[in-house]
Amino acid sequence: MPRLPLPRTRRGRLTALGAVVVVLAAATVLWATRDTAPPAVPTQDALIDMPAAPGSAEQVKIDTTTFLPATVPAPAVLLAHGFGGDKTSVADDARELARKGFVVMTWSARGFGKSTGKIGLNDPDGEVADASRLIDRLVALHQVSTDPGGDPKVAVTGASYGGALSLLLAGTDKRVDAVAPVITYNDLAQALVPNAAAPKAPSAGTPAAGAFATDGVFKKSWAGIFFSAGSGPAASGSPSAEAPEAGQETDTGSTGAAGTAAAAAVPSVPSGAGGPRAGSADPCGRFTAAVCQAYTELGTTGASSQASLDLLRRVSPVSVTSKITVPTLLVQGESDTLFGLDQSDATARQITAAGGKVKTIWYTGGHDGGKPGPQLRAKIGDFLWDAVNGGDPGTGFSYDVQGTLRANGTPSVRTVNATSYPGLTGPAAERRLLPMTGPVQPVVRPAGANPSAVSGIPGLNGIASSTSRLGALFSNDPPGQAAQFTTAPVDGQVVVSGASTVRLQVAADPAHPQPEAVLFAKLYDVGQDGSRVLPANAIAPFRVSGLPANGNPVEVTVTLPGIVRPIEGGHSLRLVVGTTDQAFASPAAPAVFRIALAGGGTALALPVVPGTSVGTPAPVGQIVGIAVTLAIALAAVLFAALRRRRAADIDPDLAGTPLVIEGLRKKYPGGFVAVNDLSFRVEPGQVLGLLGPNGAGKTTTLRMLMGLITPTAGSIRVFGHKIAPGAPVLSRIGSFVEGSGFLPHLSGRENLQLYWASTGRPAEKAHFGEALEIAGLGSAVDRRVRTYSQGMRQRLAIAQAMLGLPELMVLDEPTNGLDPPQIHQMREVLQRYAATGRTVVVSSHLLAEVEQTCTHVVVMHRGALVAAGEVGELAAAGGEATFRVDDTAAAAAALKAIAGVGTVDVEGDLVHADLDGLPRAEAVAALVRAGVAVEQAGPRRRLEDAFLQLVGDQS
């Protein structure tokens, strides 16, 4: 038998060993991630007789399926389907729960699938009573485990229509131990006939409290979809066709893992499989007479009688939330024009007031954006398992923030976790006030309310609101029909997390008096280029009654729809108040109204919920790719370990921290110490300015950070990895330290492509479009670099550093050689990049630029750290004081006359003075004695003062 030739040298043997390890690691990953069919779940089908509804002799049959876990008895979950679906719509979710260990019962509600009876919209005497009898059946079959007292362990969940059923059952059947409604409503009357205007702002203190005022505006588009889903022939056992986009799963990854939720969450027109039922030509379809009468009234008049409102509230969770005390998980969609965040907010407040513990999740989907994906379903399953087994699932709150950058076509998403839902058991939600401007504006409602404004299309709104281009196709405000008010551009990113409010004045035109106005408010996110996006295509309809015929205004607070939207620095918000909208019932009579901001400097009140941000886990395909990459990296580490006889240095506790420098020192031959005992830390999302005079050691520090030179002592860790020349973690850093080195005869784009090709990484990983969009080069990217100005070269260098969308970007003096307008543009580039949730470290000696660009600063001098912290904190440490006065000349003279006071400067109605240790109160007293009125006194917040105080005398 021939002998295989083996490498003769030690180096060759190690190389061969490394190759073998790589192959084995890849094979292991492929084996571990191979497709394997999940274990089958046994099922039991049954058609169960239910008592007839009160006043009816009709026997109702409910079609059920029970999914059994590996071991019974076990805790049970009743899993209800969405409107327009049936039990098959939630079969996959039921199997997930059964594999987790639950006995799961699904069923087709009255009027759906193979079940008989009339649709009562979760009537307590109909659908809710049916669900309670299903618990009886599970208990009778001895399939459900019990607690020590003999009570069955039962939870209920479902989405939309099914979510409301779960709440109604929890409020009427004491055997329910936990409930997890998904994208559902609190009050169907408020959801379908909302009014966002009230004399005062909501006082709940929660982030998405709605106005919930009476005499609302009919949401005819969504209501029509609902009615159509119950008017046609039944699906006879087949799942209904969901509305566009509703079948897509939405997940954030930060919401955890475990299993159940929504399948047919969106109301839709049944497919008709199995043929029409008798009587399908009836205009009331499969609805009860009472429900049909209420819809007919709304559809024909646009208004509802008290009887109709009472009916809608009777079949809504609001009728029982005061009785729910079991652990509750509320999952609500941020892209949902049917049941907005205000519905979940109201339910959370009511159950908390009843003594129940409420946990809340807002995710990026909804009736417009998609049902929960596997990670969120897993989170729901974990909650139910903990709750029915006596655990404490907690009262936390999390919401998803969808960014503007896209990777492989998917928007970036991060989740913000808060300890509790604001305003329930802790402090009220924070509100950031943004002043608004705009004159009194007349608006016209044309005859027939036609043409109408377009705010979106139910079921497609999630797509429409994702970008300004698509949003423009789905959003239109006819000229003359809307008033507009704007805010100034925001200084930095503001994440709106809930329902904003604004105070408005509405008046009828005396020449065309009207007793009331039906109006529609929208809040647009407007970019620096004028493009606008209507977040979630959400709109707030409101009715203002009692308008005086003489044209005097009526003042109201309008609560805008609950949204989660990051408003980037430089963007503004535009409030549009119109007279029509195609999704709602508008009065047909022509009218003219005058819309104005309320007096006294009206501000837009934006809810802000602080918390801890976490990123989104990669999808399974990306996880497999990452696993393969990690396996190869592990093999490389092993090979390096054999060569260098040492292991890689990784601190897992710092895996989420972009940069930690500890005890860093660099001593050059000859004894010169460039950096000495330097320590600081950079957290995710920060823009850190490394500040210091020339020769402070900034560039040396950055060169060590990039692995270009080796420290004499100390350590640098990036995401927990210790930096060394050639360290793999360097691929997660984008840098501009040594100069760009662009080829002048090539275009900017060609230079970037050439640079990326030299890294050996796939072209699809470069994200050229995103980097160029942030850098803002426009069409100039296709010109030869020799034609570029210095500012354009710097921006191209920044775009090069951004390729691959690195998690940490390091820039050395990026504004060198730029004039003021170019510096301003560079600042916007860096802030736009940081607004994506990544981290930027920038060294500079330009104090004003650091103050305007950075969130945090590290001050170095002669190689050592002299100060670190937030920019505002360091700026406030300067020795000067500022006084706002009525007579600046007299104030300056009075301050100069005080012994020990240094420089005194006048700036507008402000006087700045170096008090040199003199208490500010004594300076104020001297000004008052001089007859000067002092309106305001405080420290002069200038980074330059603090910097000179720290290093000025030694530089």
Indicate the proportion of strand residues. 25-35%
Provide the residue-averaged pLDDT.
Answer: 82
CATH superfamily of the largest domain: Alpha/Beta hydrolase fold, catalytic domain
The Cα radius of gyration reads 32 Å
How would you concisely characterize the structure shown here?
The chain is of the alpha/beta class and 955 residues long.
Chain-wise SSE layout:
Elements (H helix, E strand, L loop, with lengths): L9 H23 L10 E8 L9 E8 L8 E5 L10 H10 L2 E5 L19 H14 L13 E6 L1 H10 L5 E7 L5 H5 L4 E2 L21 H12 L17 E2 L38 H13 L4 H9 L13 E6 L7 H13 L4 E6 L7 E2 L1 H15 L8 E11 L2 E9 L11 E8 L3 E5 L15 H4 L3 H7 L7 E6 L6 E15 L7 E11 L5 E2 L6 E6 L8 E14 L4 E7 L12 E7 L5 E6 L3 E3 L5 H25 L14 E9 L5 E10 L4 E5 L6 H8 L7 E6 L2 E2 L10 E4 L11 H12 L8 H8 L14 H13 L5 E5 L7 H15 L4 E6 L2 H7 L2 E6 L2 E7 H5 L4 E6 L2 H9 L7 E4 L2 E5 L5 H10 L4 E6 L3 H10 L3
Parallel strand pairs: 3-4, 3-5, 5-6, 6-9, 8-11, 9-10, 10-12, 28-33, 28-34, 31-32, 32-33
Antiparallel strand pairs: 1-2, 2-4, 7-21, 12-13, 13-25, 14-16, 14-24, 15-23, 16-22, 17-21, 17-23, 18-19, 18-20, 18-22, 26-27, 26-29, 29-30, 34-35, 36-38, 36-39, 37-38
If you had to describe this structure to a student in words, what would you say it looks like?
- The protein has 955 residues and is an alpha/beta fold.
- The protein folds into five domains: 1-34 and 617-647, no CATH class; 44-403 and 413-418, Rossmann fold, CATH 3.40.50; 430-607, Jelly Rolls, CATH 2.60.120; 648-873, Rossmann fold, CATH 3.40.50.300; 879-939, 2-Layer Sandwich (Alpha-Beta Plaits), CATH 3.30.70.100.
- It is built from 23 helices and 39 strands.
- The strands form seven sheets. Strands 1-2-4-3-5-6-9-10-12-13-25 form an eleven-stranded mixed β-sheet, sandwiched between helices. Strands 14, 16, 18, 19, 20, 22 and 24 form a seven-stranded antiparallel β-sheet that branches.
- The longest helix has 25 residues, at 620-644.
- Mean pLDDT is 82; it is low at 235-247, 252-280, 465-472, 618-623 and 642-647.
